[in-house]
């Protein structure tokens, strides 16, 4: 079988791998493709070469203790425009080419995949140029108590994937940090039910307001606004407050006209 139109479910079988799908080239469906193996059975998973349209992927429940996903397999998932990836637990295989498990201080020059948290602090911020070729972080990106002003040094970072119910991006206590624009970041993933991006106590330019929430959400449109937090305020709450403010001003001035309305929009951007 080369093409499957419909959903794919692999559950409660004696298969030890997905190699029986070796000839499968595409899956086209509007429902879930679920991988839910039984206890102590599946040791590896083979990803089809391509998916078309939108697909939901679940890898869950009682996996073999040696079960892991290679970076190539994970890239197949995360570069597909799927609606969601539910992977619990997920473990990345450690025998991948150009995979590093070291701290920033010991990071190799040819490292394109980092398995573990990338932690940047005052003791190693002078080494951030070592991250310039990193493409994927299988863990959290944490920038804390530095003098950094931006993250342009992550010029090739495309994916941040966090599987241990943690926040994907934490940037806090950086008084000069004012620009959260990632040059090439395509997607972040976390199985955390609450927060994906957390910014606390950075430059006043990144204060919790409607404009900053819009700028951040524009980079991560697939995230819900409640999963983005600025100084312990979710963007969902910030936007709700801004909308209530606008509605209140309109209610008090029903005859503002178009110019007055535009002025309110400008004011709203500064809230």
UniProtKB/TrEMBL annotation:
Residues 110-206 form the Receptor L-domain domain. It comes from the Eukaryota. InterPro entries: Rcpt_L-dom, Rcpt_L-dom_sf, SPS2_domain. The keyword Acetylation does not apply. The keyword Ribonucleoprotein does not apply. Keywords: Receptor. This is Receptor L-domain domain-containing protein. It comes from Caenorhabditis elegans. The lineage of its organism: Eukaryota, Metazoa, Ecdysozoa, Nematoda, Chromadorea.
């Amino acid at each position: 079988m080369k093409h499957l139109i419909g959903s794919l479910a692999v559950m409660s079988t004696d298969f030890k791998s997905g190699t029986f799908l070796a000839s499968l080239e595409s899956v086209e469906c509007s429902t879930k493709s679920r991988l839910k193996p039984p206890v102590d059975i599946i040791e590896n998973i083979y990803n089809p070469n391509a998916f078309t349209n939108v697909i939901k992927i679940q890898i869950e429940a009682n996996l073999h203790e040696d079960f892991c996903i290679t970076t190539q397999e994970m890239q197949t998932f995360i570069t597909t425009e799927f609606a969601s990836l539910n992977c619990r637990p997920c473990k990345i295989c450690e025998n991948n080419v150009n995979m590093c498990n070291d701290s920033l201080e010991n990071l190799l020059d040819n490292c394109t995949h980092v398995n573990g948290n990338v932690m940047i602090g005052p003791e190693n911020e002078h080494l951030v140029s070592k991250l310039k070729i990193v493409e994927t972080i299988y863990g959290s990106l944490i920038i804390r108590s530095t003098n950094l002003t931006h993250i342009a040094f992550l010029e090739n970072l495309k994916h941040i994937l966090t599987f241990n119910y943690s926040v994907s991006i934490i940037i806090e206590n950086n008084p000069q940090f004012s620009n959260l624009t990632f040059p090439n970041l395509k997607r972040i993933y976390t199985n955390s039910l609450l927060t994906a991006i957390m910014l606390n106590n950075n430059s006043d330019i990144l204060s919790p307001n409607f404009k900053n929430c819009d700028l951040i959400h524009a980079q991560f449109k697939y995230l819900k606004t409640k999963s983005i937090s600025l100084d312990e305020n979710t963007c969902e709450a910030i936007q709700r407050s801004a909308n209530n403010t606008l509605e209140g001003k309109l209610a008090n001035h029903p005859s503002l006209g178009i110019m007055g309305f535009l002025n309110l929009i400008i004011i709203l951007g500064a809230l």
